Amino acid sequence: MPRPAAAEDVFRAVADPTRRAALETLGRREVPVTELAEELGVGLPMLSRHLAVLRAAGLVAERRDGRRRWYRIQPEPLRELYDWAAIFSDFWPEKIDNLRSYLDRARTRTDGK
User: Which residue spans traverse the membrane (predicted)?
Assistant: First the structure.
């Protein structure tokens, strides 16, 4: 099976909640791998697999300092994901307004009883 395109890798990489949490942490600061594993509450072998997926998608970079490995985010590949999600930006305000109207009607019915 051929390797997916880079953009598809990004979508797959961010589909996992542990990888999203890692990206959120790395978006704030560069972190040694042991500290990242502790913060995320996962073992080093599991985190290594997640980081391999993120590296393959170009979303993180690794820096070695002696025996320590530090990771930092490389946000550029997220741009395509952001651009794709922007297609749906008009969808949410309408849905939020509909939800607000529904809740207002439900509250009026409840308060009126």
Answer: none
Decide if 99 is inside a domain. no
Q: What is the pTM of this model?
A: 0.72
Cα distances (Å, whole numbers) of residue 79 to 9, 18, 63? 13, 20, 23
* Beta-bridge mates of residue 65: 68
CA gap 88, 110 in Å, rounded? 33
Distance separating alpha carbons of residues 50 and 57, to the nearest angstrom: 11
**Residue 83: which CATH number?**
1.10.10.10
pLDDT in tens, 5-46: 555 689 999 999 999 999 999 999 999 999 999 999 999 999
For residue 13, what are the domain limits? 6-88
